[in-house]
Every structure is written in C-alpha cells, then in structure tokens.
Amino acid sequence: MKLRLPVLALALATMTLGASAQIGLYLNPIVTRVSNSQPDTGPFAFLGQNQTSQIFGGIVIGGYYEAYHAPKFDLSIDLRDAIEHGNDASMNNFLFGGRISAKPMKYAMKPYAQISFGEGRTKSPLNPISATKFTYDVYGGVDRPLNKHVDWRVIEVGYGSLTTIGSALYSGGQKAPTASNLLNFSTGFVFRIP
Fold this sequence. Notes:
The protein is mainly beta and about 190 residues long.
C-alpha cells in the first residue's frame, strides 16, 4: 500500500519518453455498489451485519499512456487507485490494465473499453484488520474533448470482482469466502499531456 503512489509517479514519469505518446491524468469521483450472494454475520462483516449490498463512494486517481496509435483507435495502458468508503468500511483497489479507445472526428465522443487487474484491500466497519486480495474490473466509458488538453469523462461504468474481508477468512467452520461483485460509476475530467 505504501508504494502505490510512488509506483504511479514513477510509471507516469517513465511513460513520457515516447515522442508521439500522449498521457491522460484523472482524479474523479467514483460510486460503487458492492454486493455479496449471502450475508455475513461475524465480526469481520464487510458490508455490515446481515447485509448483502452496500454503496461506497470516494475518488479514483490514475492515468493512462497511449502506447500505440492506429488510424481508427489507440491502445493504452492504465494505472489507477480507487479509494472508497461506505458504512464505516473502506475499500482500496489498485489496478493496472489495457485500454482501447476509438478515434472519432474532432470534438466527437471518444468511447473506450478497458480491462484491469490488481489488488484490493478491504477493512470491515467492525474490526481494524484488513485483507488484501486479487481484484479485476472491466470498464467502458465515453470521453468528450473540451479542448486540446482537457476531456470531459461523460461516464465510466465498471464491473468487477473482489474477495472482501469477511468472517469466513478468519473464522473456522464457515464456508469459504465468495467474491463480491463491484458495479461502479465515475465521471469527471481527464487532463491530457501531448
């Protein structure tokens, strides 16, 4: 966890080496619906006692590096960290992935799709212990250029999975933990560096 921001800074700094490359940086609000198939009733219940879903909110900070340009699309790598809270619990997803975006005409909408993998750290509202597990997300969104250096991220929708902290991770005799479904929405601005 302590290395996430330095890794992000180093990755973005080394990406500026390409002559025709473009970087996009963003710091946007995010809302995520976290849901489980069965409620947790123990002292590590991430969503709260007997709850199967909860809404989390926070910020997502990240950036992408357009590594390949074709006439109709661009291929990028994306690095992001989503920090969210809800019901006195916390969730932090650090993700790295690939992104493809369409290249429409000037001032048109730019749709994109992305798949990311990484680690997610969750902490229950009832206990100070946290758990870090594998996570993934699939995103789709639309950016609209406002000028040469700023895009409006009209919407980004993501769906993913993360095994959150729960009583099954730490208590014997309970069923193995199931992954939580993550449905997230984000909007905001992307600042592009030519």
